[in-house]
């Protein structure tokens, strides 16, 4: 995993960086009653307060300790766009002036939030805006959690809630593995936001060692693999990560995951006009994925990024690609496009922000 600078935070951890078990250790180490940990957790994730002063059932002495030892994550809203389809995209500025994106999407089944795990990305996918400018640093678990809390605070105004989470924003989650796993632990805790494990999906470009680690975590959280090509040669051109973790190794890791967990993997496939969207590509992909008993491919019409040269696959060609996969006994769906009128694709808003001289 790449080394990255820690967030600028006055030397204090964030309150969201701690799991309930961490809080239990902290209150014990500070001479406080054990039940105070649950109270703090409740204030953070059920009542969703934004300052220690609001934690009214805590003694003043305890609140003073919290003020002295912790900070709340400061996500300063730089921009807030609402799409015609209800999608909301936030551009947030962090304490160190770096910028990240968070997207809230409305579905018939509820509200889904797409969170960012890194400031920038070093994976270098040639069709993605997130990699523009490279990797600045990893986010702490607390900075990832704060995105969900912010989204939930917005939804509180209309009596709604975050019902699902996709870890598909800026960055490669499996290159910030430990912080992402801590984030997930807090998200699924029944005394916290209590998001169902099967309503959470983490996506990776194929960091093979951590696919094995994730398989061994014994969770019900969904896994998605960004595949985008049916062979090594093309995938290496589109996704340089394939040179580190070749196709064969990725497929073996996926086989291990399925054997260990019994769960299905979703393969994300961004269709790029004239690049990876031809019938022969679909036929080759179907053969590759036949080794998986319940393979599912999510076809994604590529988003236009001004700094990239890829064009969107024609509508009829998308359906042809889908039909070929299904004839090959591979289930395939076409992702519903959301937020196109507000640059909701990953990294687009931050890229525009960076053009203005921001970080």
Question: Would you mind describing this structure in some detail?
Answer:
It comes from Paenibacillus cremeus. Keywords: 4Fe-4S, Cytoplasm, Disulfide bond, Iron, Iron-sulfur, Metal-binding, Methyltransferase, rRNA processing, S-adenosyl-L-methionine, Transferase, tRNA processing. Belongs to the radical SAM superfamily. RlmN family. Residues 107-341 form the Radical SAM core domain. It is an enzyme of class 2 (transferase). It is built from 12 helices and 12 strands. With 359 residues, it is α/β, with parallel strands linked by helices. Strand 10 (265-271), helix 10 and strand 11 (296-301) form a beta-alpha-beta unit. The strands form 2 sheets. A 10-stranded mixed β-sheet has the order 1-2-3-4-7-8-9-10-11-12, with helices on both faces. Strands 5-6 form a two-stranded antiparallel ribbon. It folds into 2 domains: 15-69, DNA polymerase, domain 1, CATH 1.10.150.530; 76-355, Aldolase class I (TIM Barrel, Alpha-Beta Barrel).
Cα(first) to Cα(last) distance is 22 Å
Second-tier CATH architecture of the largest domain: Alpha-Beta Barrel
Structural class: alpha/beta
Count of DSSP H/I helices? 12
CATH fold annotation of the largest domain: TIM Barrel
In which range does the helix fraction lie?
Answer: 25-40%
Summarize, please.
35% of the residues lie in helices and 19% in strands. With 359 residues, the protein is α/β, with parallel strands linked by helices.
List keywords for this structure.
12 strands; rSAM; 10-stranded mixed sheet; methyltransferase; iron-sulfur; disordered N terminus; two-stranded antiparallel ribbon; alpha/beta; 359 residues; TIM Barrel; DNA polymerase, domain 1; single chain; metal ion binding
């Amino acid at each position: 995993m790449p080394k990255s600078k820690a967030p600028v935070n006055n030397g204090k951890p964030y309150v969201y960086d701690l799991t309930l078990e961490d809080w239990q250790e902290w209150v014990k180490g500070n001479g406080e009653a054990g039940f105070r940990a649950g109270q703090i957790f409740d204030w953070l994730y059920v009542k969703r307060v934004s300052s220690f002063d609001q934690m009214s059932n805590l003694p003043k002495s305890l609140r003073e300790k919290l003020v002295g030892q912790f900070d709340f994550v400061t996500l300063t809203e730089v921009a807030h766009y609402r799409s015609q389809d209800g999608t909301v995209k936030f551009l947030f500025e962090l304490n160190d002036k770096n910028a990240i994106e968070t997207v809230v999407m409305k579905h018939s089944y509820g509200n889904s939030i797409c969170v960012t795990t890194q400031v920038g990305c070093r994976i270098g996918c040639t069709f993605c805006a997130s990699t523009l400018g490279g990797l600045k640093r990893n986010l702490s678990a607390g900075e990832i959690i704060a995105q969900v809390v912010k989204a939930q605070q917005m939804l509180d105004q209309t009596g709604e809630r975050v019902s699902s989470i996709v870890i598909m924003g800026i960055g490669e989650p499996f290159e910030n593995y430990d912080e992402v796993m801590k984030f997930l632990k807090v998200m699924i805790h029944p005394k916290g936001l209590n998001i169902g494990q099967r309503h959470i999906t983490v996506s990776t470009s194929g960091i093979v060692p951590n696919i094995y680690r994730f398989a061994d975590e014994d969770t019900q959280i969904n896994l998605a693999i960004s595949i985008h090509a049916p062979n090594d040669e093309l995938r290496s051109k589109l996704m340089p990560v394939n040179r580190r973790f070749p196709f064969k190794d990725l497929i073996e890791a996926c086989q291990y995951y399925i054997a260990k967990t019994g769960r299905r993997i979703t393969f994300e496939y961004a269709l790029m006009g004239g690049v990876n969207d031809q019938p022969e590509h679909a036929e080759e992909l179907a053969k590759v994925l036949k080794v998986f008993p319940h393979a599912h491919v999510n076809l994604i019409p590529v988003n236009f990024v001004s700094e990239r040269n890829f064009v969107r696959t024609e509508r009829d060609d998308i359906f042809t690609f889908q039909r070929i996969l299904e004839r090959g006994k591979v289930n395939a769906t076409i992702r519903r496009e959301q937020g196109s009128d507000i640059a909701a694709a990953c990294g687009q808003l931050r890229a525009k922000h960076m053009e203005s001289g921001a970080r």
